[in-house]
Design a protein that fits this description.
heterodimer; A: globular; B: mainly beta; five-stranded antiparallel beta sheet
């Protein structure tokens, strides 16, 4: 069991659907991240939130909409996705983004998304 | 542009056959180099952080080392349960000398250890 919990673990959605991924961290961290992992590609950073404020948007299409209501929760709202968006979406957290001292990032188990 | 390259892409070992995985990086200012282990269908599990050339860290059968251009993950007498994808990532300083915190990952090395 990790300190970062993601739900659902698996999601199948049509291209016209709207769904959301949820992430909760129990580590007392202040920074949260969304990463995308596609087959045969390195993990790609999507968004970073630091103390609930978005600090990074890595040129992610607007069909992905993040929300961070507090430092413990992070959502990824999905709408009108494409089949190429099918991937493993990983949530992660760390103490503080931009902090000089050690800033290890801890990952959740991921949400497998299939767009049909 | 920062780059992280891992080799080999896949490695098959017999149980007890020691070997090493490589992670080469090019960054303007390295803040830290991270190793993660990822089992199929799961998220990456943190293993080590290395901060400066010459640093070494060990955990059970794993030992990570760091030079100015690359890191090695040495696996001594591996067991089948060591089979996983091993990911390397770098964290860089920005121009102001503080850490952004975000990680740039390599594509990973898939390790399979046969009994």
């Amino acid at each position: 069991e990790t300190g970062v919990t993601q739900t659902p673990r698996h999601l199948v959605m049509g291209m016209t659907n709207k769904k959301s991924l949820k992430c909760e961290q129990h580590l007392g961290h202040n920074a949260m991240y969304w990463y995308k992992q596609s087959a045969k590609k390195p993990l790609e950073l999507m968004f970073v939130y630091n103390f609930k404020e978005q600090t990074e948007n890595n040129s992610v299409p607007s069909r992905f909409s993040p929300e961070c209501p507090n430092s413990s929760h992070l959502f990824l709202h999905l709408h009108t996705l494409q089949p190429e968006d099918s991937a493993l979406y990983l949530c992660a957290s760390s103490h503080q983004f931009g902090q000089l001292s050690g800033n290890t990032i801890y990952f959740g188990e991921g949400s497998w998304l299939t767009v049909v | 542009e920062d780059q992280v390259t891992q080799s080999p892409e896949a490695l098959r070992l017999q149980e007890g056959e020691s070997s090493s995985l490589n992670c080469s990086y090019t960054v303007s200012g390295l803040r830290g180099l991270f190793w993660y282990r990822q089992d199929p269908g799961k998220g990456p599990e943190f293993l080590f952080t290395l901060y400066s050339a010459g640093e070494e860290k060990e955990k059970e059968r794993l030992k990570a080392t760091l030079t100015k251009k690359e890191s090695f993950l040495h696996i001594t007498a591996p067991k089948p349960e060591d089979s996983a994808t091993y990911l390397c990532a770098v964290q860089e300083f920005n121009a102001g000398g503080t850490s952004y915190g975000k990680l740039t990952f390599g594509q990973g090395t898939i390790l399979t250890v046969h009994p």
